[in-house]
Every structure is written in structure tokens, then in C-alpha cells.
Fold:
Amino acid sequence: MGQIHQEAFEEEEVLGFVAEAHRFCDLFERLSSLGRLYLLQQLNESLPLLYSMAHRLPDPYNWDEIERDEAWEAEDRRGMPLDEHTAKWSEWSERLRGKLTNHKLFRLVYDPVDPRDREIIECDLAGILTEVYLDMKDGLILFGRGSDEDRAQALWDWRFGLRNNWGRHIAESLTPIHSLIYQHYDEDEGVFDV
Structure:
């Protein structure tokens, strides 16, 4: 996809983000062995880090040296095929729903700053966290392949996803996670009150 800034792959911001994405994915993949409170606490740490660190990811492409047609008609690169992605979404979101039990749904207003948007919608916390997991995992698979093209695609996808998919999902998920930990967990009794 044109000229790639190869030096970007070794930047501290990139390596730190990749390490945190690995940590987050490892947490997700150890789901069955984790208690609900511990899982929520770890998500409450990792998700804001991913969100914050992603803002410092560099653009891997030198757009001045890429012809527009070449950039938009480039080969489609994915970490995992679409059918595998879909199957993993079903599998992992169901596992997370089982772990979250009655804490898997929450309510929000889709656009909280639009005064015309007053409709409260119910969201699936497990589903949106699984979206974040799959976006991180797909990028890690690409980045791990080691070719400049794959690593550049991973960086570009993470940057795009921050603005258009997983970044919003992280922002949406933090309020219910925070609420469960700090407002609805009774430390003396060791139980959630909702």
C-alpha cells in the first residue's frame, strides 16, 4: 500500500500499545479461570490504557508518496478470515455473558451530546467487549506476521478502529464496569447488590 514508515514499528508508543493489547487479549483468553470481580477490575485497568495509548499510534503510511487509487484499492489484509472472526465473536461473547451473568446488559444514549438523541438503548456489555477483543487480536495477528505490509495494516486498523469502532466501545463499557466495581460490589459481603 505504498510507502511505509518502517521506523514506526519500533517506536515506544507502538511497542507499548502492542504489549497492552497482548495483556488485554490474554485476560480475555483466561476468562474461564477468573472471578467476576477480578475480571472487571482488570478490564477497568486495561481498557483505559488501550484507549489512551492508541491516540499516540503513528500513521504507518507516507500518504504524500501514495497515489490515491493505489491506497484505496490495496489488497485486503486481515488477521483472521471473516468467517473465523464471526465464529469467535459468537463464542467469546457467549463465554463473557456467562461470566457476567446478570451484569451483561447496560443502558446508554447512543449520542450523549446530541440534544435530539434521548432514546435510551440497552447494550450488551459482553458483545461490545468482544468487539474490542477481536479488533485487538486481529491486529496482533497481523502485527505478529512481521512483514512491513502486515504491521502497517495492523497499525492503520487500530488507528481507524479507535475512531470508528473499538474506541467507542471502550468508552461505552467503562461506565458500567466502574459502576459495578465501585457502586454495586459489597466488599464486606463479597457480592454484587444488583
About this structure: DSSP finds seven helices and four strands in the chain. The chain has a mean pLDDT of 88. Strands lie at 105-109, 120-124, 185-186, 191-192. The first strand starts at residue 105 and ends at 109.
